[in-house]
Amino acid sequence: MIDFGQTVQTLRPQLLRYARAQLRNDAWADDAVSETLLAALAKPQAFAGQSQLKTWLVGILKHKLIDQIRRNSREVSATTPDDDEDFDGPLFNASGHWATAPAEWGDPEAACGQREFFEVLELCVEKLPGVQGRVFMMREWLEMDSLEICKELSITPTNLWVLLHRARLRLQICLQERWFGKAAAKATT
Amino acid sequence: MKTLFRSCREVAALVIGGEDRRLTWVERLAVRMHMQICVTCPRFGRQVVLMREALPRWRAYRDGGE
């Protein structure tokens, strides 16, 4: 049992990083992780038969994060703009043509087959600015329903689409800079 | 007729917007028409598809990868 407790503890920093990335609030993140660890330590038998401790703990954490989001929904304002209306402006010239043409990313398997790719993608997701980052992770990581996200954040579906749109575009730009751009540079040298 | 002819900027916004909402038929048609005459936007479209395929795998990596 002591071993189990210690092993659970070693995963705490990672759980905390995930919780902070989702909630963008250190106190709430601390709470969610504490609740996760308490739940795990109270029911070690629930882990029996599961192959990976991390998978099990992250599964519990995701539920606790959704609980936190529901609990704090009134305090979370999703209306703070992260960037201006013209967020995609720099990508295009005045006539609406691409200022710099998007690159050919090639075969998805070539990228997705690599662990490093997901590390870079993860970094890009966690770097998304506050509201966009929270909303994007609610949708794509916690897999919350769009209507529920709107309800918890008191925003309209249109607001949600705009936030997700900005997050997705920002992710593509980040991946271009940190992954595909570098891979292309490597291939030509 | 103007609504069927969109700039790259507008088409890119529709393509990425299509990830989260259902486009209207006019929007879908405008995207398809633009994609036939533009060499650059289809590349952007393929980036969006790659992202769509990568995200569930990122989720699995995040949740289970050691």
Describe the structure.
Chain A is an all-alpha fold. Helices cover 68% and strands 0% of the residues of chain A. Chain A is built from ten helices and no strands. The longest helix of chain A has 32 residues. Chain A is flat. Chain A starts with a helix and ends with a helix. The mean pLDDT of chain A is 86. The longest helix of chain B has 24 residues. The radius of gyration of chain B is 15 Å and the shape is elongated. The termini of chain B are far apart. The mean pLDDT of chain B is 92. The chains are: A mainly alpha (189), B mainly alpha (66). At the A-B interface, α5, α6, α7 and α10 of A face α1 and α3 of B.
Give structural attributes.
heterodimer; A: 189 residues; mainly alpha; B: mainly alpha
Low confidence ranges of chain B: none
- Rg over C-alpha atoms of chain A, rounded to the nearest angstrom: 19 Å
Straight-line distance between termini of chain B: 54 Å
Low-confidence stretches of chain A: none
The number of distinct β-strands of chain A equals 0
Measured as a percent range, the helix fraction of chain A is 55-70%
Class computed from helices, strands and strand pairing of chain A: mainly alpha
Write the layout of secondary structure elements.
The complex is a heterodimer of chains A (189) and B (66).
Chain A: H1 2-10, H2 12-23, H3 26-42, H4 44-47, H5 53-71, H6 108-112, H7 115-126, H8 130-140, H9 146-153, H10 157-188
Chain B: H1 8-17, H2 25-37, H3 41-64
Helix pairs in contact in B: 1-2, 1-3
Give a summary of the structure in a few sentences.
Chain A is an all-alpha fold and 189 residues long. Chain A has helices at 2-10, 12-23, 26-42, 44-47, 53-71, 108-112, 115-126, 130-140, 146-153, 157-188.
